Q: What sequence folds into this?
């Protein structure tokens, strides 16, 4: 296991070595900004809680700790089921004659890779607690944060192995997690034993794991058999739509890019399933709203629509739904920036038309006036266009890596939100717009010549 | 004519291409050979515009690639070493789409001919995601040849071909060269390079170490009894 850790660390070290000094400095500067901002905000919030909410510093530590543990618990099955099967390194190592402990080491590395994000979130909390509560609480906090994830990892492996082999449902895992957090909430509200919960949890989970210990060590290989690359292609009826018979509904120069994107979506079963389920769910929720939410209908309606449009775009940075562009195609095929940009834009906007149509019908059925309907439609049209335009800029900027595009985009969104929350109301939109123009220019530059 | 003038490419501390100057004439087939890491792929990638961070100059018929990339892209057909294509399009659709982007009028005959030559007719309606590595490599080659661009650059694209496809492609490439096209290909298979090239360019550790014409190799064989293989080993072995 140690050998596996060593080589992964070496890989990470080499990766850092290859980063340019400018990028290293940018990363450090951004980390300091975020760290300082969140720590300062948390210190204020914790002091306010301690003085106004009548809780002790130990209770506060325990609460913070369990919120972070909840994040660990919720992300664990997602990493286990969705992210690990996509790791290239994992597939390389999977076919090697690794010992059980070696495989466990590989799994731990991938868990740490993703859950380190939670540890990064924990860092400002850690500092804020140290400043507001002192060293004793930090010790309890550290014990919980460092030890419980390991227990969660073992437990989750065990549960998902059992569940996948028998029922192929992960509900057992969530049931157990819910029980744990309900138990915590009950004890917390009665204000007894709260500080000993992490230790109690470790003890409880150890008891649970012991009877299943054989499964942990003997069934690794069997469990790994299900980690096979996902095949998203299909031969469903909609695959009968062909490139050469596709109607020309956009200008000729954009047509190849538009059809390429549409066919990629139509032939991706995951994408089609997601869109159909989202649209059905959207219609259902709007019907429920119309029948049961007379009061505050407008505000809830707007919120639901914004969330669904946002969700529609959320697949844009997910490799399950979107494939990276081949580098040789982007770099050597003779086309302009606007062609590929508009091709992607029109494709994604097809679903937005469906959403806008549903919104229109819902408002008509609700009995809204025409001027109000037009205002709402105009708002959502502009909102969707703005959101999509920025997303495509990032997708083209990182055309060969969908995930990296997602990280960059969400980083910008978080940055803008932080600026807005942190009293820079007027500066934030200006900086966001400047950043967008800058990224748009960088994206354009890749295709200019 | 393609002119590569004092081109150097550096990746971090590694000098991948070291001050290379070559002139490639119209109507000729050029084979680039060299051991792993010699700079073959890097040089070709710079010549097709995939790498723009280099010193020196690359000119196509006197036009600088750096300043006329958009115009020159239409005259370059490129088959990369990796075969990353669009997984949800069928092979035929992929070529069809490229023909549309390149605004090639007579593409239907062209596509059918290429698919026939490369033995892809039977799988042309299957999505690329289900292709084997060899099939994707053939499709990538077909994509480079579609519309018969003036300059064709193939990066290890001929290596894995089956004998029938190889025979057909060799004929096609020779035919194109006879019509005045420039064909540049890199390969590890020295027999293939010797057989197909009018001129062979040998690289080692990023440097151009020899340029040999087909007749020079023949002379060497006749006089010294040495083939390209022996000569290559002599030059490259430390």
A:
């Amino acid at each position: 296991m140690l050998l596996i850790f060593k080589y992964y660390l070496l890989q990470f070290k080499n990766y850092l070595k290859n980063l340019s000094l400018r990028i290293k400095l940018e990363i450090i500067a951004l980390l300091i900004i975020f760290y300082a901002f969140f720590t300062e905000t948390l210190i204020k919030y914790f002091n306010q809680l301690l003085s106004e909410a009548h809780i002790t510093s130990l209770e506060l530590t325990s609460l913070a700790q369990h919120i972070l543990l909840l994040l660990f618990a919720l992300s664990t099955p997602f990493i286990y089921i969705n992210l690990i099967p996509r790791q290239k390194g994992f597939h390389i190592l999977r076919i090697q004659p690794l010992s059980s402990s070696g495989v466990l080491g590989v799994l731990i590395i991938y868990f740490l890779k993703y859950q380190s994000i939670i540890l990064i979130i924990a860092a400002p909390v850690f500092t804020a607690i140290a400043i507001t509560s002192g060293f004793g609480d930090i010790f309890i906090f550290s014990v919980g944060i460092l030890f419980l994830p390991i227990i969660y990892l073992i437990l989750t492996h065990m549960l998902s192995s059992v569940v996948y082999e028998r029922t192929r449902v992960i509900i057992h895992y969530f049931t157990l997690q819910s029980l744990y957090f309900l138990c915590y909430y009950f004890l917390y509200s009665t204000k007894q034993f709260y500080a000993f919960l992490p230790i109690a949890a470790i003890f409880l989970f150890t008891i649970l794991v012991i009877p299943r210990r054989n499964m942990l060590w003997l069934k690794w290989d069997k469990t790994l058999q299900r980690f096979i690359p996902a095949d998203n292609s299909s031969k469903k009826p909609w695959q009968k739509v062909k490139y050469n018979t596709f109607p020309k509904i956009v200008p000729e120069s954009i047509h190849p890019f538009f059809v390429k994107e549409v066919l990629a979506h139509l032939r991706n079963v995951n994408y089609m399933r997601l869109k159909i389920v989202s649209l059905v769910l959207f219609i259902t929720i709007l019907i429920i709203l119309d029948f049961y939410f007379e009061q505050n209908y407008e505000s809830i309606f707007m919120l639901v629509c914004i969330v669904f449009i946002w969700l529609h775009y959320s697949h844009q940075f997910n490799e399950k739904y979107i494939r990276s562009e081949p580098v040789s195609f982007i770099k050597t095929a003779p086309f302009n920036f606007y062609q590929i940009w508009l091709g992607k834009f029109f494709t994604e906007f097809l679903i937005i038309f469906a959403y806008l149509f549903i919104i229109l019908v819902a408002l008509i059925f609700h009995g809204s006036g025409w001027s109000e309907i037009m205002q709402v439609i105009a708002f959502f049209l502009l909102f969707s266009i703005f959101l999509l335009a920025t997303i495509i800029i990032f997708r083209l900027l990182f055309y060969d890596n969908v995930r990296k595009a997602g990280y960059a985009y969400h980083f910008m969104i978080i940055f803008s939100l932080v600026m807005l929350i942190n009293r820079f109301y007027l500066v934030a939109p200006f900086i966001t717009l400047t950043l967008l123009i800058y990224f748009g220019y960088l994206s354009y530059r890749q295709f200019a010549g | 004519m393609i002119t590569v003038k004092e081109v150097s490419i550096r990746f971090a501390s590694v000098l991948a291409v070291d001050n290379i100057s070559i002139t490639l004439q119209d109507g000729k087939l050029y084979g680039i050979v060299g051991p792993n890491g010699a700079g073959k792929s890097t040089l070709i990638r710079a010549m097709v515009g995939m790498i723009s961070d280099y010193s020196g100059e690359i000119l196509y018929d006197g036009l600088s690639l750096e300043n006329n990339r958009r115009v020159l892209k239409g005259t370059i057909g490129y088959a990369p070493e990796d075969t990353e294509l669009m997984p949800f399009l069928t092979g035929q659709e992929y070529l069809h789409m490229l023909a549309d982007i390149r605004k090639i009028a007579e593409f239907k005959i062209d596509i059918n001919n290429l698919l026939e030559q490369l033995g892809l007719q039977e799988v042309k309606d299957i999505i690329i995601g289900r292709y084997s590595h060899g099939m994707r490599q053939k499709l990538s080659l077909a994509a480079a040849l579609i519309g018969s661009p003036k300059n064709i650059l193939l990066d290890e694209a001929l290596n894995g071909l089956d004998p029938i496809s190889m025979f057909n492609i060799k004929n096609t490439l020779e035919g194109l060269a006879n019509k005045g096209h420039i064909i540049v290909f890199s390969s590890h298979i020295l027999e293939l390079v010797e057989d197909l090239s009018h001129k062979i360019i040998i690289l080692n550790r990023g440097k151009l170490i020899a340029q040999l014409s087909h007749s020079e190799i023949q002379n060497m064989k006749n006089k010294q009894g040495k083939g390209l293989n022996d000569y290559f080993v002599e030059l490259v072995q430390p």
